[in-house]
Structures are given as C-alpha cells and as structure tokens.
C-alpha cells in the first residue's frame, strides 16, 4: 500500500521543498521530502491554485528538547509557495539547559517567485531552550512575506517567558545576480531572549518583556508585497498621536458616526479601538527595500486578531497566495 | 678547539660585555637618582622655611599619554555628537506608560488566566537597565568588532544598517555617526603624528569610508545634528537615516557604533576602555535626557552616574557581549523596538528619538 505521505529523506529532521511553475501556469511541488520530527503535508486536491500550499508540522505537535529540524526551500521562477502550520509550534522543556532545540530554514526564491510564510506563533514552554534561524535569499524580483512570532508560553499554566533561552534570527539577503558583486544582507532581525541575567541589577526576562504576551515581526519584500508594505506604512502614519486630545464635542463625535464613514474608515476606527483596548503596540518602517512591522500585545489572541485584520483588510495576501495563506492568522 | 667550542666562547664573551654594560647603566641611573634626591632635599631645606610641602614634578603618569588624552576627549559630554537630541526611547517610554491603556478591563472577561504581572509606574530606574541591556546587545558587538579590526569598518557599517529595523533608531545612530566622522575629519585626525602607523591606518580606512559615504549621495556630515522636526508627517521616508526606500541601500551609512570602535582603536584606546566609554556615554545621554524631561534634577543625575549600580552594570554587560560576534547581536528587550519605533507617533516631542 502506498503511504499517503510523501516519501522521507534520509538525514534526521531534514526537509526539502521545491516549488515550480507547472506548464498549466499553476504552482506545484517538484520535491517534498521530510524526516522525523519534521512533517510536511501538501493537500493533494487543493481548494485554491494561486499558490501551492504546504503544512509545516511536527510529530506530536511540537519539538521535543534536542530536536533538530533543517528545512530547505526553493521557489523557482514565477512559482508561489505558501507555508502554514496547524496550531502553535510548541517547544517542549529541555531536560538540561545545554540541550538545544533547533529549527533552521533556508529558502531561496528565484526571480518572479514568491514565498508566503504566515505560521502560528512559536510557544516555548517553561524550561525550553530554542534557537531558530531563518535565512531567505531573494533574487531581484522575488517576493517574500514572513511572519515570525513568539508567545510567553502556556499562559493558562502561569508560564510567562519562563523558558531558559529563545534565540530567533531572520535574515533577508539578495541573491548574487549577474551584474551584482555578490550576496548582500538587507535585513537581519534577531531576538535574544535569555533568562540568564548579566547582573542582579538588570531586569529579569519577564520584567524585560514588560507585560507583553506575544511579540511578532512581519517582513515584506519584493514587487508583489509592495502594496501591502505601503499599506502598513500608511496605517502607521495615520495612527492618532499619543498624548493628543480629541477636542470635538460629544455631538460632533456622534455626528461622525451617523454621517457614515467609508468602509475603510470604519474598519480603521474599529481597529484603533481594538488596539487601544487590548494594549497592542506596533510600528512599521521601510528599511533597505523591506517593510518591517513589529507588534506586541499582552494577549496572544489580540496579536493574532490584529495581524489578521491588517492582512485581510489590505487583501494582497489572499489575492496573490489564496485565502489558505491566512489560515493561521484568523 | 672545535668550531662549537669556539662559538660558545665568543658568545660567552658577548654576554660578559652585555652584562658589564647593563651594570654600568644601572650604576649610572642610581647615581643620577641620588643626585636628583640630593638636589630635591636641598630645595626642600630651602623651601621648608616657607612651609611649602615638596611636590614631585609631573612624571610620565598614566594620564600623560596620547591614548589617555583621547580617552578624555571621547568620553566628554561636550563631544559634539548631538547626543542631546536623542532620548533612545525614554520619551516614548514615558508617554506610553503614562497614558497606558490598562488592558485589565478587556482581558478580565477572557478566561481564568492568572492575573498579569502588574507593571510598576514608569521610572528612570526601570528604564535604565532595559535601555542599557538593549543598547549593549544590539550594538556593542559592532563597537568591539570595529576596534578589533578597523579595516572591516565599511562591512560592519552595512551589516549594522541591516539590523536597525526602525526609522527612529536609524536616524539617531546615523546622525551621531556622521557627527563623529565629521569631528574626526575636521578636528582629531590632524593631531595624529604624521607617518605614524595610526595615521596611516586612518588614511587607509576612514578616508575611503568618507569618500564612499559622499558617493552614496549623503550630504557632507555636519558637525552638529540636524534637529529634524518635519519627520512626523511621513515616518516612512523621513529622517537622517536617509532611508533608501524601496531602492538598493547605499554602500555605507555611517552608524555610530562601528565608527566609534574604529576611531577609538586608531587613537590608541584599549578595547576595554572603548567598550566602557561607549556604554557610559549611553548612560550619560539617558541621564541628561531624563533631566531635560524633568524626571529629576542635576544632583540626582550625578548620583546616578556615579552609582556602583551603573559601574557594575556596564562591567557585566561588557562581559556578556565580549565574545558575541556581530552575526549573533540582536535585541534583548523587544519592547524597546516598539517604544523607539513609536516615538514618531507622539503628539509632542522634545527629542528626536
């Protein structure tokens, strides 16, 4: 009997995905291999064909202390690949602090290709030791949408940044082109969350997180993500000034509601209200041809609702990669 | 006599002569010292009638060296880097935590989760360790790397440029870096002895760096910081970071940390001195910002600067970052990125960061 899953490669924790544009103009998989504890699944009868969808999973729903995962991704010219997860990536407790759980991803996207990675957040349990490195090499006209987010742990169990160490590094490089001299680093975004205090006077990790329960970074690059990037920049610019006062009378405020705002304005008003009530903070910047959005919120779901709302409202992700790309953010 | 014995005898002779010379030199030095003391005593006897206590003339003390001279210059608050224009997120931290929307009423409905850690009211004592830790983990490895190998300056500058993913932070780093480069060009470089190794290294590293910066279309570095106030209108394109926007980034940007490391190395500061001065300067800038933001007065400011806590924190952070390579540098206080990034959306601001 044939296994319903793609055949596995040999080395432990190794995985490989190659996406290419098929003759019918639809993105498909040329290669998909994986090895325990990594598991990759691509629906055989996809509901959408704007991009090819791969679920990045792990046996047992998480990474056990000492697990090593190495995923290599190639997106060929004009192909579009979407990667999602099913539920938080749990990082289980390490029995010893020198047992490091590692996840490494190296992705190359060729000209005209696009990669969308909107996974669930990583949830490091108390006592876990985790290092994550994600390196993206993009050809000149390649596009990337990358979301990387981490939570405080199992808050229902009182975990609040109770892990030993969490290191996360995302790098975006240009691929050396014909005329270019070589690869160049465009963005390196690193988080070093370490429970070890340099000095007793320094803050503990929990204090340093300042009551934030989820911290996320969204990196956008390339021609297909330009519209979404500009949307974030424009929304950031349109944020109400902190410390400003609304001098309008109650009647004027009510009149505004009655007169009817445009759909976009209503959405923004509701979103701003949600930001304020949930204590969500965010910022956006255009850095070396990439838009980098940072957000933090006391509650994990507030972070998810916010990023989902932003991505759905602008619409690019759904149009370019299909609605399945948004599975984890709504 | 064999060849070997002959050589040995010759070398014995040579050693004997060297010993004799050393002995004579030592005796000469002793005699001179006795003469100096005798002269001093004579003058003491003469002066003791006037009740003057003898003062030894200033010798080659630890202070009297070129390196220490530059140590004092580079650690001086009067060094015109324009640091006064930046609060490194302090102003934004205060604004965010004063008007902090308490999430309690909305979250209490959610579930039976344990109550959130209650945040202390905003204070300088809370902010200082966070800011210093963040500053050290993101930038100190670049200072150290540039000091260890100043020839890597341009590459370190470009790499650091890729890691500051926040408009406001870029503006602060680049404005101060360009100011330092300008001070170097116009003021410090001429005091290096010509044809010394440091002068040659400076010519080989900083001259091409300045040229590269100018070729990138950056305006010539000005000696003081431009106090941009028009930035509020459009954070995406504004600022001294001279963000390259959607285009390819310029070859170099002149961020402060690698330039500081390289220049300190060229004027002879040790790696430890450089790291210490770098972190202490950050504390000084924060303290001065706190004074101008009205958090406390000048005496409290000096008390903070002099405190053992600050000394120990700087030492501990130097130790923490000492071995960290630049590719491992990163943010240890993520909320700092939010505060600094959101400085743009403050209604009223007295600082540029």
UniProtKB/TrEMBL annotation, chain A:
GO biological process: urea metabolic process
Protein name: Urease accessory protein UreD
Membrane spanning stretches: none
Molecular function in Gene Ontology: nickel cation binding; urease activator activity
One Pfam family named in its UniProt record: UreD
Keywords: Chaperone
InterPro entries documented for this protein: UreD
Key word Chaperone present: yes
Family, per entry: Belongs to the UreD family.
Keyword Chaperone appears in the UniProt entry: yes
From TrEMBL, chain B:
Low complexity bias: start-end ranges: 99-108, 223-237
Coiled coil: 7-48
Span list, region Disordered: 96-120, 216-250
Pfam families per the UniProt record, alphabetical: UreF (PF01730)
Biological processes annotated in GO: urea metabolic process
Matching InterPro entries: UreF, UreF_sf
Record-level Gene Ontology MF annotations: nickel cation binding; urease activator activity
Cross-referenced Gene3D superfamilies: Urease accessory protein UreF
UniProt KW keywords: Chaperone, Coiled coil, Nickel insertion
Similarity field: Belongs to the UreF family.
Protein name: Urease accessory protein UreF
Upper classification of the organism: Eukaryota, Fungi, Dikarya, Ascomycota, Pezizomycotina
């Amino acid at each position: 009997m044939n296994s319903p899953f793609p055949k596995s490669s040999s080395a432990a924790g190794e995985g490989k995905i190659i996406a290419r544009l098929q003759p019918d103009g639809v993105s498909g998989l040329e290669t998909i291999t994986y090895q325990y504890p990594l598991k990759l699944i691509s629906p055989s009868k996809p509901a959408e064909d704007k991009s090819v969808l791969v679920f990045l999973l792990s046996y047992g729903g998480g990474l056990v202390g000492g697990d090593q995962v190495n995923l290599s991704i190639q997106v060929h010219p004009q192909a579009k690949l979407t990667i999602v997860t099913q539920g938080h990536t749990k990082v289980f407790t390490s029995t010893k602090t020198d047992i490091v759980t590692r996840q490494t991803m190296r992705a190359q996207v060729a000209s005209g290709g696009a990669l969308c990675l909107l996974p669930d957040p990583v949830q490091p349990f108390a006592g876990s030791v985790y290092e994550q490195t994600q390196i993206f090499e993009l050809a000149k006209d390649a596009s990337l949408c990358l979301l990387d987010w981490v939570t405080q742990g199992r808050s229902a169990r009182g975990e609040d940044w109770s892990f030993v160490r969490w290191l996360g590094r995302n790098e975006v490089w240009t691929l050396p082109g014909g005329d270019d001299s070589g690869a160049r680093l465009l963005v390196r975004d690193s988080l070093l969350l370490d429970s070890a205090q340099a000095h007793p006077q320094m803050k503990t990790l929990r204090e340093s997180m300042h009551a934030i329960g989820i911290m996320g970074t969204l990196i956008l690059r390339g021609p297909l993500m330009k519209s979404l990037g500009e949307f974030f920049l424009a929304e950031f610019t349109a944020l109400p000034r902190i410390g400003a006062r609304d001098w309008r009378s109650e009647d004027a405020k009510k009149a505004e509601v009655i007169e009817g705002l445009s759909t976009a304005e209503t959405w923004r008003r509701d979103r701003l209200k949600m930001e304020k009530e949930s204590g969500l903070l965010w910022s956006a910047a255009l850095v070396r041809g990439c838009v980098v959005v940072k957000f933090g919120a006391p509650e994990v779901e507030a972070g998810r609702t916010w990023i989902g709302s932003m991505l759905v409202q602008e619409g690019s992700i759904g149009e370019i990669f299909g609605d399945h790309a948004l599975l984890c953010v709504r | 006599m064999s060849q070997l014995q002959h050589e040995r005898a010759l070398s014995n002779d040579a050693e004997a002569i060297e010993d004799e010379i050393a002995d004579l030199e030592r005796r000469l030095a002793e005699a001179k010292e006795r003469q100096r003391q005798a002269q001093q005593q004579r003058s003491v006897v003469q002066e003791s009638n006037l009740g003057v206590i003898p003062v030894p003339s200033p010798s080659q003390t630890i202070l009297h060296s070129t390196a220490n001279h530059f140590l004092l210059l580079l650690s001086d608050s009067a060094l015109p880097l324009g640091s006064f224009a930046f609060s490194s997120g302090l102003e934004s931290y205060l604004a965010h935590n004063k008007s902090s929307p308490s999430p309690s009423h909305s979250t209490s409905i959610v579930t039976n989760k344990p109550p959130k850690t209650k945040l202390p009211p905003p204070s300088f004592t809370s902010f200082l360790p966070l800011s210093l830790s963040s500053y050290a983990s993101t930038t100190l490895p670049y200072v150290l790397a540039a000091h260890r190998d100043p020839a890597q300056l341009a590459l370190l500058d470009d790499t650091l440029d890729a890691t500051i993913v926040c408009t406001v932070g870029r503006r602060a780093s680049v404005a101060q870096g360009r100011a330092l480069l300008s001070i170097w060009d116009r003021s410090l470089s001429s005091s290096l002895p010509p044809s010394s190794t440091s002068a040659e290294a400076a010519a080989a590293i900083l001259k091409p760096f300045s040229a590269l910066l100018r070729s990138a279309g950056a305006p010539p570095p000005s000696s003081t910081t431009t106090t941009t106030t028009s930035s509020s209108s459009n954070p995406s394109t504004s600022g001294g970071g001279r963000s390259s926007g959607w285009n390819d980034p310029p070859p170099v940007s002149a961020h402060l940390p690698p330039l500081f490391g390289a220049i300190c190395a060229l004027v002879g500061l040790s790696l430890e001195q450089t790291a210490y001065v770098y972190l202490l300067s950050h504390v000084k800038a924060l303290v001065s910002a706190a004074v101008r933001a009205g958090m406390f007065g000048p005496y409290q400011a000096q008390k903070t600067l002099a405190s053992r806590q600050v000394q120990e924190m700087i030492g501990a952070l130097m130790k923490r970052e000492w071995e960290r390579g630049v590719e491992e540098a990163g943010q240890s206080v993520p909320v700092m990125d939010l505060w600094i990034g959101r400085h743009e959306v403050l209604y009223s601001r007295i600082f540029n960061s």
